[in-house]
Amino acid sequence: MSGTTIPRAGLLGRDEDFASIGRAVTEASARTRSRAWWIAFAGACGLLGVFAAALFWLLLNGVGIWHNNNPVVWALDIVAYDWWIGIACGALLTSATLRLTGAAWRSGVDRIAETTAILAAAAAALYPIIHLGRPWVFYWTLPYPNTLALWPQFRSPLVWDAIDIISFLGVCLSLWYVGLLPDLAILRDRAFGAVLAEIDARGRSRRLTLLKAQVYGILALGWRGASTHWERWLMATRTLSGLALVLVVSLQTGASVMLAGTVLPGWHDTLLPVTFLTASLLSGVGVTAALCVLVRRALHLEALITERHLALMARLMLGLGLASAYCYATEIFSSLLHGDAYDRGVLVRRLSGSHAWAFWIIVVFALLPVQLFWFRAFRRSGLVVALVGVAAAIGSFGDHFMLLIVTLSHDFLPSSAHPYRMGAWGLATLAGSIGLFLALLLLGLRTLPMVSITETRRFAESHPDGQPSGERAPTLAETAEAPLWGVSAEFDNAGTLAAAVKAMRARDFGARIETYGPVPMPRAADALGRPAGILPPLALGAALLGGIAFMAMCLYATGFDYVFDVGGRPRFSWQAFMVPSVSFGILCGGLTALLALLFQNRLPRLNHPAFAIPGFSRASEDRFFLALEAAGPRFDPARIEQALARLPDGRPLMVRRVPL
């Protein structure tokens, strides 16, 4: 594993190595300090001002300002909510699937996809709250009996929304933060390096530089990159990805089940769950692709987000576009061939009614532009990929508008029909939610690594030959009197580190062996022979128990404590509680996975003796460290140093004694 990095299928620039990958991402935030960023941020803040005005007017006059009427009780607010949730689910499903399949090209996409999911879910979460009319009592939708011993109505979609949004944000934030944890350690080490450089140059550091180092240090929770840390980290990311996959499928198919539970025509097609899932995937992948192009161009990360990444995203959009076209065509032919008169009436109104523009937006923006990606030149054009991605999101909005508004505005009776018109305040609320998404995104570009350093390094096939750091090692005179924590050895690659672990474990030095590095070290972990723990069974057990407990609570509340018949349903209609039970169970599993990772790795721990190893900050860059911690009376540092100097398969770059 020596020599320069060899690009894998064009996913990395030819001259990229571990150190350059870290520099490219961590220094990218400095490129946002430009006039263009401030102009974009000012525009996003302007949209937030529009949202504040719309919210003030809403609280003053009620939700009727959105032009809701008697049949169209779900107006533009619920359309926008479903649209944002679709984008969030599509982006999260993309990241989770790429992680579970081990796709190499996820290195430039997964962090952007997870960030998209979180921001879109945050924008969606606004709507159920402000739709209440009295958002300051939003907690009434949570499952607890109030002072009058009344439970929330668990059959209500509003309760579904509250549980689903909380669960989605909990799982998505857990996956995002766990994936970000090693990168935060890199930012911490670089920030403390900047503090030391300023002290050497000026005699003291600037307060802002020190504050940045302290904030990153707290957020990193004491991550050291130990081999056992890495093995549990890999297990946690895979577990959270699996839970996220189940959650997304449950949310998107559950929405179609909720619509199918009504009597309105046009919502009972058996293909509707697949249509929901495919449309959300297309919109989520489209927004993620557009943001990949933005991050690549704005932060000058062309070597890490290459044309190959863009081409693969384009192929994915093409496949999802074809699947969506198949779903829409099947629904049309199904209604024409064996639908009743009411289903065909809904179809006619969708194609030629007063809101037919929504259907044609789907065709023009979501289904036709993706056909450009049959051609290689368009697949490798960042501008085309970004425009088609945004167009896919616009087409998805048309899909949600058509599905909800057109169906609700006319049911079985002509006398019940009432047209719906979008009002200025509904559009202002939508624009405000877009402003929130953009403002948070721009702040993230400035403060956090938008490309995963760890994942990019994992799929770099090699890294340069290591050289001594140039730091002076402690002499015997300096360490003879001081109590020792242990002896450390520095290596330039994971292969020689694993060989050293095997050689040192074969002899009894009275020391506990640990390894540290910038990427997972499976061979060193195997040589150490320490189990990674039982994190997946814990998460699965917590998910099952959480889902069963929530179902039991719903059945108890609606069947015994607060019986309230809705629509003539059975007293114990457990089917109505399946979706929120699954969501709550997944939330319990995700939080358990996060807490188990921290507990097993003994985090947070903001100080550790390993941090005293000279040059240890390079453990987050391009060095691998072997530490032999004193663990008994047989510990002899001189004997350990002699053994390290005689290693048969690669000697260390430097050996140091580490005082307490």
What does this protein look like?
With 660 residues, this protein is mostly helical. Helix content is 61%, strand content 4%. It contains 21 helices and 4 strands. It has helices at 18-26, 35-61, 76-101, 110-130, 157-202, 207-220, 227-260, 272-298, 307-338, 341-352, 356-367, 376-379, 382-408, 424-447, 453-458, 476-479, 494-505, 522-528, 535-561, 578-600, 637-645; strands spanning 484-491, 511-516, 624-630, 654-659. A 4-stranded antiparallel β-sheet has the order 2-3-1-4. Helix 4 (110-130) packs across helix 8 (272-298) and helix 4 (110-130) packs antiparallel against helix 14 (424-447). The longest helix is centred in the N-terminal third of the chain and has 46 residues, at 157-202. The two termini are 33 Å apart. The model is unreliable at 1-7 and 462-480 (pLDDT under 50).
Short description:
This protein has helices spanning 18-26, 35-61, 76-101, 110-130, 157-202, 207-220, 227-260, 272-298, 307-338, 341-352, 356-367, 376-379, 382-408, 424-447, 453-458, 476-479, 494-505, 522-528, 535-561, 578-600, 637-645, and strands at 484-491, 511-516, 624-630, 654-659. By secondary structure, the protein is mainly alpha-helical.
